[in-house]
Amino acid sequence: RLAVPSTSGSRKQYAQLIQEQLRHVGVDVKIDEMEGATMQERQRAGAYDAAMESWSTDPDPVSELAETWTRNGASNFGHYDSQAFDDAVARATSAATPDDARSGWHDAMAVLAHDAPAIVLYALDNVAAVDTRVTNVRFRPDYWGAYLRTWRIPPGRLTDRDNVER
Hints:
By secondary structure, this protein is mainly alpha-helical. Helix content is 38%, strand content 6%.
């Protein structure tokens, strides 16, 4: 049984594709379309075989990795349970130096890569458009707004719209 939110056309299509692919190897997949709250309730209770979920990732590993994958993480809907992962996250979050934190996060990612508690089916491309008047535009792959504070419109390129009273 594959839980799919009834409001997501793309995830319903992916579920049908998975169903058809697995049918060819003898696996009978039943698709359970349900509204979001029902799906979350079932996930929290562990009352599902598989689920088509989506995540918007946060570049901060504490809020993203720890919340999604540690035993007590608020978003650990898959009920993933790895003492090795939890220990690595604890080392990373309590590290005294950046190198120690990096080592802890590296170890945590190695455990996740080995255990594969989820299968990533796709990743959305981030697309941005910025007016050519704006200078010093830089994007970080994990968070588009990371350098937003450095963007500027040179005085000679300001328009009436830019001259707002503060």
